[in-house]
Design goal:
71 residues, 3 helices, alpha+beta
Length: 71
């Protein structure tokens, strides 16, 4: 994920499971779970993951970065 650039389900699917034969049947659930876990981890640093329906996900940078927290 990058700031100001959306990553669609298809892009993340290709990155997470590059071999189509290895893609689990539950890939949508797995992807949602991973994004949820990533959101929780990034939230402590002020980052967010925004979701635009039918477009994808993008990172939203914090308004201010706490240098002590990032170190």
């Amino acid at each position: 994920l990058m700031c100001h650039r959306y990553a669609s389900h298809e892009i993340l699917l290709d990155v997470l499971w590059p071999d189509p034969d290895a893609t689990p049947d539950t890939w949508r659930w797995c992807m949602t779970k991973h994004v949820s876990d990533l959101r929780a981890a990034l939230r402590q640093f002020g980052w967010e993951i925004a979701n635009e329906q039918r477009v994808g996900w993008t990172l939203v940078a914090p308004k201010q970065i706490d240098v002590k927290l990032a170190a």
